[in-house]
What we know:
The structure is a single chain. The chain is mainly α. It folds into 2 domains: 7-61, Orthogonal Bundle (Arc Repressor Mutant, subunit A); 62-97. Helices cover 66% and strands 0% of the residues. It has 4 helices and no strands. Helix 1 (11-22) crosses helix 3. The two termini are 30 Å apart.
Amino acid sequence: MQKIPKQEYTAEFKERAVKHVKEGKSIGLAAKEPGLVEQTLRNWVKLSAAGKLAGAGIKVVTPEQMDLSPLRAENVRLKRECEILKKATAYFARDVV
């Protein structure tokens, strides 16, 4: 089974999402617009409050990598679904014969 790749975000993207929350938007709404998991945004808000959101040691992510990340995750998910369908087809084809 393939591991789903971890989503990567640019520092600017994280800062923009946290800014929406600081401006009064709920975490649920601020996370929904860009397609984030609410807990991820909560973590970023906590890191921002501690001054560690874009701290040293953070890997630089290009916009291209950020665009590719969800596509890679979807690719892994679709491959898993395909494998399940192949196994189900083989199982039911065996019963028919």
